[in-house]
Prior knowledge:
Blueprint: H1 4-9, E1 17-20, E2 24-28, E3 36-42, H2 58-71, E4 79-82, H3 86-89, E5 98-102
Antiparallel strand pairs: 1-2, 2-3, 3-5, 4-5
The chain binds guanosine-5'-monophosphate.
Guanosine-5'-monophosphate binds at residues 4, 13, 15, 27-31, 39, 84, 90-93.
Amino acid sequence: MPTLFSKIIAGEIPADVVYQDEHVVAFRDIVPVAPVHVLIVPRSEIGGLASLPESGDHTHILNAAKKIAETEGIAETGYRLVFNEGVDGGQTVPHLHAHLLGGRKMSWPPG
Ligand code: 5GP
């Protein structure tokens, strides 16, 4: 079964795509929790960090985050990159993704 994010990547479900390359697709979260809230998703269907191969998509996700932060105008002010993993981590979509959050001051600790 393709994941929700695989359907978005395939164009079967519409999304506001802000960046894509051969490794990742990034689109705005449908329920943004910050002025900038972009999901960075590897094209390969990896369930989460637990199943990410050691030589997996880490670099591609981080490189995309840096580029998107620039284009979204938050590289200077700062931002947060979040991976929710598993039940306690709050993961709801079982396809590895990073949340790029910015445009407001973040609090700590996260809820
Ligand atoms: P998680 O909770 O797994 O870390 O993050 C999943 C994210 O996907 C949530 O922030 C949720 O708002 C977002 N999301 C769920 N369904 C859709 C959708 O159909 N389109 C988009 N753009 N985002 C979605």
